[in-house]
Amino acid sequence: MKLSLAIDRGNGSVKWMAHLEDGRNYLGKFASMLLQNRGKSDPVSVDGIEWLYGASAGKVALGATIRPSETGAQGKVDHFAVVLAGVLQELMNRSNIGHNIEIENLSVVSPVCNPTLKATYEASLKGRKFCVSGQTLKLKVKSVDVFPEASIVLKKSDADIVLDIGYGTVLGSVRGVEGYSAILENGSEELLTKLLNHPKFVSSINAQEGKSSPQVELLALTLAKGDTSIRSVDLLPFLGELVPEWFDQNVIALLPKLRRIAREEGLSSDALLIGGGSELLKLALGDRANDWSNERGCIFAETSDFASVQTLGELWAVKTPAIVGGR
After folding, report:
1. How far is it, in rounded angstroms, from Cα 30 to Cα 221?
2. Which of 75, 120, 136, 229 could bridge across to 68 with cysteines, CB 3.0–4.6 Å?
3. What contacts 150, CB < 8 A, 6 or more positions away?
């Protein structure tokens, strides 16, 4: 089976899109967690070493999982072969693509783009042995390309500014301006940590005998699934209080600089909000989310968390697929 594949390995989740040679398209994501297998079923294997990925890894040993945010930019490259194996297993769970797979275009979304990084990704996959869904794969990767995080979305958007609100960082880009025009080192992980430390949340947990406060990674996993309660505590009141305020103080605060640069380039001031943090804002505000963003001169991507891989899919000139689940 020949296919094209786009992967965005964020600090919070791995987003992917696949376009098969027969015209079928698939889209999905899983938590950005890896763990060497500890006797559990349904692992993937790279070079004979078994791995768990996504929520399966978190359920076994949340604190021991490997996450890219813990090792800086290099963390996006480290263990990328395992991430690819996880993506292929997710795809194989939804479609019979066989074990003889040729990836004609492997597009990787990265905060850094240069020829050296492209060669690094190519080297990380060369000669590796993959076993996925119980099958040893005959895998050939013909081409690897690296695309800039955040700004890639502007290639298929009417907006001239994009703000990518991720789990570890917030990145701001202006059309035609190389690199990032604004960077915030604290992403939505900081926001979720505030929620866990909110006095009323702590009090609600302490009132329940035998229950302890969840780790921030577990909270992120819960919210990513659209669930709004954890440990029997309703999260919506806390999200409604904390999320808009955090956005105004951190994300929206980056816009004056980005809009000044856009004006100097003769561009519009409209800003596109993407990333998992944008989905969190939608969850917190519900029906009020669009009005809130419009008041600040911003718009949401239709599926904010998948914006980068969907853009690459559109650049392949394929129809945007329906969203499917992930672990």
Report:
1. 9
2. 75
3. 162, 163, 164, 171, 172, 173, 180, 274, 308
Tens digit of pLDDT for each residue in 122-175? 999 999 999 998 899 999 999 999 998 889 999 888 899 999 999 888 999 999
Residue 182's DSSP bridge partners are: 172
Sorted by sequence, the CB contacts under 8 Å of residue 54 that are 6+ apart come out as: 14, 30, 31, 33, 86, 326, 327
Partners of 162 in the beta sheet? Answer: 173, 272
d(CA 250, CA 263): 21
Per-residue buried b or exposed e for 44-67, using 16+ beta carbons within 10 Å of the residue's own CB: bbbeeeebbbbbbbbebebeebbb
Compute the distance between CA of residue 152 and CA of residue 76 in angstroms, rounded to an integer. Answer: 17
Whole-angstrom distance, CA of residue 92 vs CA of residue 136: 13
> Are β-strands 25-31 and 13-20 bridged in parallel, bridged antiparallel, or unpaired?
antiparallel
Question: Considering the entire predicted model, what is its pTM?
Answer: 0.90
Tokens of 44: 């993937």
Q: What is the pLDDT of residues 52-63, one digit of tens each?
A: 999 899 888 888
Which three-class secondary structure state does DSSP give residue 165? Answer: strand
Helix or strand holding residue 97 (H, E): none
pLDDT band for position 235 (50/70/90)? very high
CA angle 128, 130, 133 (to 5 degrees): 170
* Residues 89-100 pLDDT 10s: 999 999 999 999
